[in-house]
Amino acid sequence: MKKGVGVNVEFETAVQAAQEAGQILLSYFRMEANVRTKGIADLVTDADVAAERCIAARISAVFPGHAILGEEEQSGDTTAEYLWVVDPLDGTTNFAHGLPHFAVSIALLHHGQPQLGVVWNPARGDLYTARLGGGAFHNGRRLRVSSEATMDQSLIGTGFYYDRGAMMEATLGAIGDCFRQNIHGIRRFGTAALDLAHVADGLYGAFFEFQLSPWDFAAGQLLVTEAGGRVTDCTGGELPLRKSTILASNGLLHDQMLSIVSRRVGTW
Ligand code: IPD
Ligand code: CA
Ligand code: CA
């Protein structure tokens, strides 16, 4: 694949797979009868496994030679030339509690570089897409990061990994440091792929989290960079294709945010 071109079939496949998987998620969402018989945890497990199987089947049917890395079952080789990175249900806790803020996230990487990203919130009908060199879009509207250059003009997003120990304390510490810069507020909406879309859309000046996995950020990362923003780990390094800290911003706030989050790295 040449850089930034020729991804139409790939793009259409990603959108269709995300939307089919989204239908599956909706069929499990707020199904109180099922919760009573199966319990929330089993229901969520059924939903994300079924959604990932659907996505993997569609991708494999069109691109049998491509590797797939998914959160649930697909353990594709991360060194493969073409690698699809899939979170079939990002925002599990929201989903389990009936909050319509969750998403399917699908990215295609070529030699480790994101070529396209699709983030689909089926409960709201929000489709975020990006293609390398082709911009980022929300339901067809071009996305641009925000233009604020100082923390005291900014809304900041964050997320907590499932940790309840030192990493959580580090996150709380960084939130306190953000408030000491007089930010407008902190938001924690619970779906990293959509948090990254919020940076791309100029809603958050920046978003940070101290542990995410490639399926959480692969698609959203491209949304941010294609909207004119910057994404690194929390020390300013390139994001690796494994669990990592992450800082995404409009670019203008990046160094100010780095000075807040980088000093926490290594404290957990
Ligand atoms: C989680 C969500 C959440 C983030 C967690 C992720 P999951 O993904 O993206 O916002 O804070 O770190 O693990 O478990 O719902 O797929
Ligand atoms: Ca996730
Ligand atoms: Ca997930």
Gist of the model:
The chain has 268 residues and is an alpha+beta fold.
Give the helix/strand layout.
Elements: H1 8-28, H2 32-38, H3 40-62, E1 67-70, E2 82-90, H4 92-96, E3 103-110, E4 113-121, E5 126-131, E6 135-138, E7 141-142, E8 155-159, H5 166-180, E9 185-187, H6 192-200, E10 206-212, H7 214-226, E11 230-232, E12 244-249, H8 254-261
Parallel strand pairs: 1-2, 8-9, 8-10
Antiparallel strand pairs: 2-3, 3-4, 4-5, 5-6, 6-7, 10-12, 11-12
The structure holds D-MYO-inositol-1-phosphate and calcium ion (2 copies).
Task: Explain what the structure shows.
The structure is a single chain. The protein has 268 residues and is of the alpha+beta class. 38% of the residues lie in helices and 25% in strands. It folds into 2 domains: 7-142, Fructose-1,6-Bisphosphatase, Chain A, domain 1 (2-Layer Sandwich); 151-264, D-Maltodextrin-Binding Protein, domain 2 (3-Layer(aba) Sandwich), CATH 3.40.190.80. The chain has a 7-stranded mixed β-sheet with strand order 1-2-3-4-5-6-7, with helices on both faces. A 5-stranded mixed β-sheet has the order 9-8-10-12-11, sandwiched between helices. A hairpin with a 2-residue loop joins strand 3 and strand 4 (113-121). Helix 1 (8-28) runs antiparallel to helix 3 (40-62), helix 2 (32-38) crosses helix 3 (40-62) and helix 6 (192-200) runs parallel beside helix 7 (214-226). The protein starts with 7 loop residues before the first helix and ends in a 7-residue tail after the last helix. 47% of the residues are buried. Mean pLDDT is 94; it is low at 1-5.
